[in-house]
Fold:
Amino acid sequence: MYPHNVWYVAALAREISATPLARRILGERLVLFRTASGNPVALADRCPHRQLPLSRGRVLGEHIQCGYHGAQFDAAGRCRLVPGQSEIPDHAAVRSCPVRERHGFIWIWMGDADLAAAADPAPICSFLDRGNWGTLDAYIHIACNYELINDNLADITHTEFVHPTTLGNESMRAARGELAPESSSIPRFEANLVDGGMNFRLSLTGTRPAPSFENAYRRVRGLKAGLALDFQLEFSFRAPAFWLFSPTAMKSGTPAAEGVSTSGLILITPEDRTSSHYFHKICQSYAPEVEAETRYWLDETCRAFDEDKVVLEAQQRNLECDAGDASAPVSFRGDWMGFQVRKLVRAMLAAESGQPRLLESGAAR
Structure:
C-alpha cells in the first residue's frame, strides 16, 4: 500500500514540543514530543498496561508519563518507572521509531530501523543547504489517498481550471503539447527518469504567466501592461511522494537571475489508505530578508492547495462510493506523468518486497 523503508515527514518542527502530539502515519498511531533536552521522540501511542494513548499523558524530563497509572517511558520506548512498584516487567515497552530533525521538519522512519541510519532524509531538500533563503511552511490534512495527491501534482494542466486566480492559466496546456490561444510561445516540455524519481521542465517564451507569477514580477521587477514574459517551471518528484517546484518568470531574453523565482517543497506522508498529511514549505532567494515576499508566496500557495483539497476529497469520496464500478477511467494526454509517478512508487514497493526493479533511469518518453 505504501513504502515503509523511507524517511517521511511526521510533523513541522514547530509542531513538536513538550505537549504530546497524536498523529497517525502509515496507519499506525504515534505520539510525538520533545524531551527536556530538546530531542524529538516518536513512540507508539499506546501504553502497554491498559492501552490508553500516551498522547493523553505528559512529558516529564526525558520521559513521557501515561495519564492513567503514571508509568514512564524513555525515548527508546522502555518503561522506566511504575509508581509504587520497584519491579518493571521486561515486556513493558512500546515501539520507538527513528526520528531526525532537518530543514524545519521532523522526519520519521516507519520501516526496518536497522536501515534508517544509512538513508538520507529528504535529499530533495538539499538546495536549502546552499545560499540564503527566506522560508515559511504550513500543514494541511487531506482526506484522500496519497497517490491521488501525486496524480494532482504531476498534472499541471489542472491549474488552469482549479487555480485560475493563482497558479494556473491556459499556458499550462503545454504539458499536453498545446499552446494557449493568445501565446506566441513554442513550448518545450522535457521529462527524464532519474534514480528514484523524475525531473520535469517546462519552458515558455513570450507568454503571460499565471496570476501569482505575473503579479509578483510586476511588484518586484516592474512590468508594463501587456508585456509578455518568459516562464520556466522545473519540478522534481522523488518516490514515494516528495515534490519540488521551482518556477521563474523573467523578461523575455533576460537570464533567470533577473526574474522572480521561488522553490516550493511539497512532502506527502500517508496517514492511512484514505487520508494524507500534506506538508509544504515556500522558499525564495530574490529577497530572503523580506518576510512579506515569502509570506506572499505562502498565502498564494495555501489558497491553491485549499482548492486542491476540495477537489481531492471529493474525488476520494466518489472512488469510495463507486468501489464496485468496473468501468475503466478515461485518460487524457497529460496523464502520462502521473502514470510514470505511479510506476516509480510501484518500483519502490517491489524493491521492499524483493521483486525485480521495474524502471531504469533515462528519458521518460
